[in-house]
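Lab notebook, bench 4. Still working through the backlog of constructs that have no structural model yet. Next entry is a single chain of 119 residues. Request: give me the structure tokens for it.
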Amino acid sequence: MYGYDSEGKIIDPAFAEARRRTCHVVGRDDAVAPFDEHSPLTFDNAYYKDLVARHGFLTSDQALYVCGGPFNNLVRIYNKDGRRRFARDFVTAMVKMGNIPPLPGMPAEVRLNCKRINY
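Model written out:
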């Protein structure tokens, strides 16, 4: 169910209902919605601002902030620090992930389009 976990509401109910209407189309599985409504074409920290406002697109991501735990502080930092800290940490994470080798025997490819296999 949109905006709920086993312990109750974690996403703003009005926002969750709006997303449900946008994304849930019976008989279709290709509905799309932006992860960030404010600046969907800009790579910035707006997603974290949405989490603080309880407007997270994914319940699992919203849980990083609303349900407490070690990620609350990081969400707050990315929300307030503008783009600097988020951009720096993102670059570091992407370099680390890029250095992870594929499992032995597993085929691997760099996709030209993330949505499609190259062949």
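Notes after review: The mean pLDDT is 80. The first strand starts at residue 4 and ends at 5. Flag for follow-up if needed.
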